[in-house]
Amino acid sequence: MKPATRFFRSVGIASTVLLAATSASAHDGGKKPEKTTRHMTGSLEVCDFGSFFVGGVAKLTQYANSPTPATPTTPWQEVIIGQMYVQFMIPENQRGWPVIMVHGGGYSGSGVESTPDGHEGWFAYSVRNGNATYVVDQAGRGRSGFDRSMIHERIATNNLAGFPSLGTTSSSGIWTAWFGHLINGTDITTGTLIKHGEAGDPQCAADPAHCKFNPAHNFNEIDPDIQARVGAIGPPPNPANAKALALEHYKWAVPNTNSTLPGSVCTECSPNQNLAGDVTWSGQDLAKLVIKLGGAIIATHSQAGPIGHHAVRYLKAAGQLDSLKGLVTIDGVGTTLAQSGTSAADYKKIPYMALIPYYPGLATATYQANIDAINAAGGKADLVSLSNPIYKDRFKGVTHMMMMGQGHLDVFDVIQKWIGKNVPGSSKKVACARPNSRGDVDDDGDHHDHRDHRH
C-alpha cells in the first residue's frame, strides 16, 4: 500500500469516527445533522494532495500595515505581491498531462470545488478522470492575497484618483448576467427579477427558441435566512425578489482585488496594450506553473480567457512554448491573438479549444476568428458550442457559469473527451512521485517538489 493511500484511508477512518461522534452529539441535543448526502460521487484514490504558491515579487513599502502618512522615520517593510495560490490533487491512476483550472472574474478557485447545491465539482471530477489537477486563485484574488499597501498608500497620500475598483458581480448582477433579467423597474427595490424563459423575458421576441426553458441551475438552493432578510443591511428589496436574491451561488463571489496589483505595457501586442494587473501577473504566473510542472494543459474561464493567451506569450518569451500541451478557453472574454502578443503560428503545436455555453457566448466571433487562423497555420483548433444540434437537448439551458450549474459534469466530459482526442500523450499512464518526509525538525531537507509528476 502506498503512503498516500494509507494516509487517505486513515483520514477516512478518522472522519467516520468523528462523524459518528458528531451525529451522536447532535442526536443527544435533539437536532439532526444538516447534511445527509455527500458531495462526491464516490471515493477517490489520491497519491498526492496539497498547495503551494508560484511567482510573486518583493515590494518595499512604508504602508504595509497602516494608512497613516509616512514620515522619514517610518520603517520600510517588505510585502510579497503578485504570487498565485495553487491547490493540487494527483490521482493514483494518473495519465496524461496535468490540467490547470483558472477561474473567471468575481470568483476564485472554489468555483470548481463543489457546486452551490452540494455536488462534486470539476476539481474532484477531473481527478476522478485520471488528471493531475491544479486549481489556482488568480494573482491578487482569493487565497493568493492582494497588495494592501497600495490601498494604504492611496489613503495616506489622499490620492484617490483612479483608486482601484474592487467591484465583483453583485447578487443581482450575477442574476442579470447569467440567469435572467430585471423588468419593470430600475433596480432590485422597484423591479422584478425573472429567469430566462419566464413571462416578460425581453429577449423572447428576438430569440424565441431560447425562451422555451429556464437556465440549467438549481434555483431552489437558497439560504432561508437571506430570503427572510435576517440581519439584512440597507433598504428592503422588492419582496418578489426575495428568493432570487437568496441563492447560495452568490456566496462564491469574491472581490476583484487583483486591481491592487500594478499593470504593465505589452509591446509585443498589436496594437500595444496597457495590461491590467490580472493579466500581467496571472499570465506570467501561469507560465511559471506550466514550466514548473514540466508541461501542462491550461483551462481558463471567462475573464481569464485573455490570461491564458498571455501565458502563451510569456512561455514563448521564456523559450518554453512546447511546455504548453493544450489550451482550453471556456466562454472567455474576447481577445485576438495579436492583442495578446501571439500569432497563429505559436499554436501550431498547441491544441486549442474554445467552449461556448448553450446560451450565446461572450465573444464567439472573436474566438472563431482565432480558431480559423490557427487552423490555417497548420494547428488544431475547435470551437465547441453546447447548443450544437449534435448534443440535442443534453445541454439545454447551460449558462456561462457551467461548472456550478446543473449538468456540470456532462460539460466537463466534453472537455475531457476533446483533450483525449487532440492532446498527444493524454492517455499515457504516469506513476506517482515518491513520498515526501514528514518534515520533522531533524529532517534532512530532502523535500519533494512539484516538478514533472510524469516521472
From TrEMBL:
Transmembrane segments: none annotated. Keywords: Signal. Gene3D superfamilies: alpha/beta hydrolase. Residues 1-26 form the signal peptide. Residues 425-455 are annotated as: Disordered. InterPro entries: AB_hydrolase_fold (IPR029058). Residues 437-449 have a biased composition (Basic and acidic residues). This is Alpha/beta hydrolase family protein. It comes from Hyphomicrobium facile.
